[in-house]
């Protein structure tokens, strides 16, 4: 059975405000119908790093205005990161969210996996890689989820969207580490010129310089930042195995996060950058802003987002990383029962 995916573009210049387009999408797709009066609902989203590439808080505020009559207690939710940065623990992440303007949304900000990323409840999924998922506690105890995802490229999985927002962003540190533990970056000695950029950007101080850069496997967390910042393209991973393992594990974790919950998804096809929002070395967006999608199926909305961005850019996401099969994520998620790759696109533009 096909899943419905709703789409709306930015509209004709000077004719309609973007907020009105978002409101139309939410109402026509019946996003409010996901929630029941009395729910405690997590708005699961990335609250930003030290870069401008995240969902603008004003968009979130508009969504809350539309959903304000549902009688639901919403809260903004995300989890801490493996790497040492502004999202490494709850106090630091909350301060980053405030700095990025999310206090203006007017909702509580809850770091769902607790003070240091150790608060979770286990959920059984019986996947190929994960038998049980360590779901961040505040998300586990929520009645329902509104998933707001910034769609973009990703250096390890090819793209990041709804599935990754759930499967990496909804779990505790221990499972993040497990998922990344199969990623083993290594240095091509002949290409390394000892520039030190990888050393500068490694969040775990896992790289040192000698005759060439060396990665300490005991400290490496598999985040792949070094891979994307190296100007000599000297750092590699085994793409066939490592990317497949990560993508499938993310899909399995996503199933654990949403198990037993009502879910509504909105993908923002805006500021579509080639790299993950967490990456400090972002380039320019791949294309002009496209619009917004809504669905109750995280697999369908990701597949529709990929298809539309590839169509708009002439296949740029694939050409950027021909060694990554982006379809692994959606195919495995469908196999696990998270949703359907086959969809009907309903254009509200």
What does this structure look like?
Keywords: 4Fe-4S, Iron, Iron-sulfur, Metal-binding. Residues 183-209, 211-240 form the 4Fe-4S ferredoxin-type domain. It holds the Pfam family Fer4_7. By secondary structure, this protein is of the alpha/beta class. The chain has helices at residues 18-28, 57-67, 90-99, 137-140, 162-167, 173-180, 197-201, 225-229, 239-258, 298-313, 316-320, 327-336, and strands at 3-9, 40-44, 73-78, 109-111, 120-124, 132-136, 144-150, 152-154, 158-160, 186-187, 207-209, 213-215, 235-236, 262-269, 291-295, 343-347.
Gist of the model:
The protein is an alpha/beta fold. The protein is 32% helix and 21% strand. It has helices at residues 18-28, 57-67, 90-99, 137-140, 162-167, 173-180, 197-201, 225-229, 239-258, 298-313, 316-320, 327-336, and strands at residues 3-9, 40-44, 73-78, 109-111, 120-124, 132-136, 144-150, 152-154, 158-160, 186-187, 207-209, 213-215, 235-236, 262-269, 291-295, 343-347.
Order of helices and strands: EHEHEHEEEHEEEHHEHEEHEHEEHHHE
- What's the total number of strands? 16
Distance between the termini: 25 Å
Poorly predicted runs are none
User: What is the CATH superfamily classification of the largest domain?
Assistant: LarA, N-terminal domain
The assigned structural class equals alpha/beta
Give the strand order of the largest sheet, numbering strands 1, 2, ... along the chain. 4-3-2-7-14-15-1-16
Based on CA atoms alone, the radius of gyration comes out at 19 Å
Helix fraction bin: 25-40%
The largest pleated sheet is described as: 8 strands, mixed
Name of the CATH first level of the largest domain:
Alpha Beta
* Silhouette: globular
CATH topology label of the largest domain:
Rossmann fold
Structure annotation, total helices: 12
Please state the average pLDDT score.
93
Give the count of structural domains.
Answer: 2
Going by CATH, the architecture of the largest domain would be 3-Layer(aba) Sandwich
Strand content: 15-25%
GO molecular function: 4 iron, 4 sulfur cluster binding; metal ion binding
InterPro entries: 4Fe4S_Fe-S-bd, 4Fe4S_Fe_S_CS, DUF362, Fe-S_Ferredoxin
Keywords: 4Fe-4S, Iron, Iron-sulfur, Metal-binding
Protein name: 4Fe-4S ferredoxin-type domain-containing protein
